[in-house]
Amino acid sequence: MKPIVEIAKTAGIEEQDLELYGKFKAKLSDELWEKVKDRPDGKLILVTAMNPNPAGAGKTLTTIGLSQSLNALGKKTIAALREPSLGPCMGIKGGATGSGQAQILPADEINLHFTGDIHAITSAHNLLAAMIDNHIFQGNPRRLNPKKIVWKRAMDMNDRALRNIVVGLGDGNGMSREDGFMITTASEIMAILCLSENLSDLRERLNNIIIGYDFDDVPVRANEIHAVEAMCVLLKEAIKPNLVQTIEGTPVLIHGGPFANIAHGCSSVIGTKTALKLADYVVTEAGFGADLGAEKFFDIKCRKAGLTPAAAVVVITVRALKYNGGVKVADLAVENLEALERGFANVRRHIENLQKFGVPAVVAINHFTTDTQEEVDAVIALCQQLGAEAALSYVWAEGSKGGIELAEKVARAAEKPSTFRFLYEEDLSIQQKMETVVKEIYRGSGVVFSPSALKTIQKIEEMGLSHLPVCMAKTPYSFTDRADILGAPTDFTISVSEVRVSAGAGFIVALTGSLVTMPGLPRKPAAESLYVDGDGHIVGLS
């Protein structure tokens, strides 16, 4: 690794605008934005993917490798990524810093505690939770109805045992009531931090958080129990983007980490906008498949922040195609052209969906050593039939050299005139917005709302918040709300079990199917394979 001061210089950042966290990590100062805000924006490239398979797809890897390859072509490029969560690191996914010759460094530190941003968000979230119960204990002047408190607690770990709990047990410990935990990446504060323009915007959004309802069914907000200023104190440093580097020395801004299956799945607006002022190209990603991350990137992040993406990259793998074509995970290394062609229906739909947003798309085929030449040729031919540009990506093995063809095609696509548009307009009803996403992106036939979801929608409309965009919380593995239905199904319904309003973040969350906001650990968690060797090196975090 190069000293982060040197990496900053390549991005045009002076040392005085860095707040150093050791030799290889730094936060950007508040003053930097004032120096660069009047510069023209670079071109914004979104990296998304087909629906993932349990063996992985390489979207973050491709984002990192593409940024390196664009730099190798002489185009000044910065990557803008999300911060990894400890939950997935210890659960199924492991780390989120890429691998091979396309990774960000220092990987272990980024995957674990990094600069403390997620811990700060967890603390701010739980401070608000503690002040809610204290408000009730100390006389409840705002008349909060304990049965209508909607603000749960949070932690950055997968722990299904905490989904539903009872607090206030024992004498003198407050009122006993049902409560629960969500993972920090699902916290509204995470979404707020990622959508805020600055500390002042952050404060205003925190003020608007709805924590529950009083006995007259009037919403109670965070500012009414005097929690917001202390929350800002805890988040003062966390709102600053973090600067690190790729293995080849490309600058990377890592900031924020909302999941795309239960939140909006994009890194921070502050990080993205800063990168756009510093570079000719900014390569960012959105979580999971394009049905989740890309749709939310366009309809929530770009809408709220006034961003216009120049191009999109759809990451696919031969393995993921075969998985969506019905092949079991254990058999993904075996050649199967028939399953590959069946699974390509999934990619076709994602490409068609991106075209609905007016964004030119390039297909990146993330190459695995188990891919046969016949399979690769078949995938390229299928892309050509769609009229889609496709390029093999060898960035894991070769770094920037392995992504030159992809970078050239992405750069050409980004030069085309932008026709970017949103999927729906704000004046549609809440139900119409959800139905539009289901019908246009998932290709379902409609939405089934639970009675409680309909009641919440009515309440949101009464509060005058129906103009907000919607954030669909759904399984990443399928276009449906069931993880076992793969490929490109049609004529299905999406069940919305619960609706929540994130008034501070500025969107409405629809929980579909059996999705929960606190994941559990798998039968064999990744944590079981983690250890520190005799030389003090962390092993198994990848």
From TrEMBL:
Keyword Aminoacyl-tRNA synthetase: no
HAMAP family named among the record's database cross-references: FTHFS (MF_01543)
Family: Belongs to the formate--tetrahydrofolate ligase family.
Keyword field contains Ligase: yes
Organism, scientific name: Brevibacillus choshinensis
Name of the featured protein: Formate--tetrahydrofolate ligase
Catalysed reactions listed for this entry: (6S)-5,6,7,8-tetrahydrofolate + formate + ATP = (6R)-10-formyltetrahydrofolate + ADP + phosphate
Catalytic activity, EC: 6.3.4.3
Gene: fhs
Annotated InterPro entries: Formate_THF_ligase, P-loop_NTPase
MF annotations from Gene Ontology: ligase activity
Pathway: One-carbon metabolism; tetrahydrofolate interconversion
CDD domains: FTHFS
Entry-linked Pfam families: FTHFS (PF01268)
EC category: ligase
Keywords per UniProt: ATP-binding, Ligase, Nucleotide-binding, One-carbon metabolism
